[in-house]
Predict the structure.
Amino acid sequence: MGRAAKTSRNILAASALGAGAAGAGVLAQRRALRRLQLRPDPYAGEPFGALRGRPVSVKAQDGTRLYAEIDGEDRTDLAIVFSHGWTLTQDSWHFQRKALRGLGRLVFWDQRGHGRSDGGARDDYGLPRLAHDLAAVIEQTVPEGTPVVLVGHSMGGMTIMRFADEYPELLGSRVVAAGLLCTSSGNLGSVTLGMPAALAAVTQRVLPRTLRAVGLGAPGIERVRRFGRNGSMLIEDLIAFGPDASPASVKFAEEMMAETRMEALVDFFHSMITHDVISDCGRLGSIDTLVIGAENDLLTPVEHSLHIAKCVPSARLEVVPVSGHMAMLERPAVVSDHLADLVERARKTD
């Protein structure tokens, strides 16, 4: 059986488990969870979420309060601003935060509706808003005159691409380099997650509408959401990670997802899959750009990274073997080394 077929079968099974199936279903869930927990774990005991910097409150263009932290705030030679992905928080950069300390001023922030940031108005949960949020973060956390390297994962990479489209005058003068990790420039509505294309299309079309119809934030939805945490972790492992991911990393990613506001989860998902073109990426050709894809990424398949690199001919392309969508948590040393190279290149060319 091929990987796509296996993934399809496993996603459907995990979904049933997450729904709280009784009898044999519960037993199957326990067995699957046990297999995950018994997987060799190089990051068992890793203090995920324990690394902290100086907290900063950033006021977005629309008045929403965004939460950011700064490491190395005495550094004004170079700043590296990290934008996390959908249903994650700034703590998803845990390993890079450790590895890149000392290379400059590190800025981490939580996207609106995620982590410690406020949610804002419902009609502002869309990709266009995120570009302006990033601009506010740069303006309020990086001293004027300090060159900036932008790093983004998944939705964070889309944030950077939209930022480049909205603020082209800052590319080269303020922002000198960008690193895009496991992200997409559009056409996410065609991503199947390994499911049959027809089933994937129906799921992506119906799920956001269904959740909105039931009532976002309703106590019933939140109770069901938290009740199925074990099933949720199995699904996280199957669609967001590669085949040998650390159980501790999977658990940490699921915890971040569980704490994401439901309206942010649904509305950003809807925004991402309904934008046929998120960005044409052309503006990024004016700065040093690094594109990192992952071999087993089901959420933003490696073909999307290849497409971005094609649209930015000067970009450097790297593909992380074996890893899934959460490459920064699965193969942290590989990702950190690529980002460190980008930072050093930015320092030399500044």
Summary: Residues 1-23 have pLDDT under 50 and may be disordered.
